[in-house]
Amino acid sequence: MAERAIALVDCNSFYASCERVFRPDLRRVPIVVLSNNDGCVIARSADAKPHVKMGEPYHQIRDTLRRHGILAFSSNYALYGDMSQRVMTVIEGMVPALEVYSIDEAFADLTGISGAEQLARQIRAQVLKCTGIPTGIGIAPTKTLAKLANAAAKKWQANTGGVVHLDTPDKRDWLLRHMPLDEVWGVGRRMKEHLGIAGIHTAWDLAQADAWTLRKRHSVVIEKTARELRGVPCLDLESEPQPKQEICSSRAFGERLHDIEPIREAVATYAARAAEKLRAQGSLCKKVRISIRTGMFNPNEAKFAKGVVCELPYPTDDTRLIIKAASEGLDAIYRTGYAYAKAEILLMDLRQRGEYTGDLFSLEQPETAGRVMGVLDEINSRWGRGTLRPARVPIEPGWGMRRELLSPRYTTDWNGLWKVQCR
């Protein structure tokens, strides 16, 4: 039986790379991408990393960026989402099975394929050719080792060519000895500190530690991580993503809001987006939690935060019913005299269709509601999100997210199409 071979394909500095695809003049310019409302740094190109830390507030580092010639961009989620889909489509057409792990990462099953490393280099070249996005690829018998191999492919790219294949025990052991503990998938800062107390400082130390002791002192997750580092598969490839147990839609306002009506618009907008995600995974929800809060860090602003859970009459995916419940919840928690900074919608008690059985007198979602939502999603899928929407959801909200450094939506908006000037 062929040895298991799992490849992790990871886009290099994905958000920054997306900004460069349609701007060849930025190929050698360091880039950072900012969070919602241009708050803090959430992505950096490789040449920006020595000068800027993740999470640094934009307003505090403007002089640093200017001094080092670093350009800042607002988050362009429409562009990043579309480019991600293009990358995943290219990879999917070249491998037997694919698990999309995140917007810029995917696990591919290369088991039984002769010349797995050669195929990985072909994938890397094809993704770059078709999308302009550079990638790194790690191949190993387990997902955790593939993650570590991917980190090595990027760290020593000049020597590896962006691909590392741990196809022998010697290669695996060498990498484990030279990789610090915080490069291991799933080992965060706090876990690193706890393991350090036990003398575990490298990936090799963790692989050699007793698995049952790790489970007893820490968690089953760390136990599985140690076993995977030894080459024992504990994590399967998931070709279909598991349905989420909760769905959240939350965003800070572009400006402070005092009146309830613009907040109601925002709540309706977030609820509509959450309902789209709910239907996309084929689920129904029975409870909606709505919460609002003021800014929590300005000492000159009065602080207020409150939330409430609203029970729905029956499990539903109907945008109209979810918005109605959220709006009623907002009425119950809103208080005048505060400058509100953020609202959140959380869909709870999610159930897949057919997973619940009510009694004889239980209410159920009418079939007509399902058909209406199907038409809504079909129109928006064909003509773009927001083409058909509830009346309470505005087209251009005044409270929308502040993105003063936003690049064009090159691939999803006619007005953002790439312009080429001929001389």
Automatic annotation (TrEMBL):
Instruction: Identify the GO cellular component terms for this protein.
Output: cytosol
Instruction: List GO molecular-function terms, semicolon-separated.
Output: damaged DNA binding; DNA-directed DNA polymerase activity
Protein EC: 2.7.7.7
EC main group: transferase
Coiled-coil stretches are: none
Q: Which PROSITE patterns match?
A: UMUC (PS50173)
GO-annotated biological processes: DNA repair; error-prone translesion synthesis; SOS response
Q: Which gene encodes it?
A: umuC
Name used for this protein in its record: Translesion error-prone DNA polymerase V subunit UmuC
Which key words are in the record?
DNA damage, DNA repair, DNA-binding, Nucleotidyltransferase, SOS mutagenesis, SOS response, Transferase
Family the entry assigns: Belongs to the DNA polymerase type-Y family.
Q: Where is the UmuC domain?
A: 6-188
InterPro entries recorded: DNA/RNA_pol_sf, DNA_pol_Y-fam_lit_finger_sf, DNA_pol_Y-fam_little_finger, DNA_polymerase-Y, DUF4113, Rev_trsase/Diguanyl_cyclase, UmuC
Identify the species of origin. Halopseudomonas bauzanensis
Does the keyword Nucleotidyltransferase feature in the UniProt annotation? yes
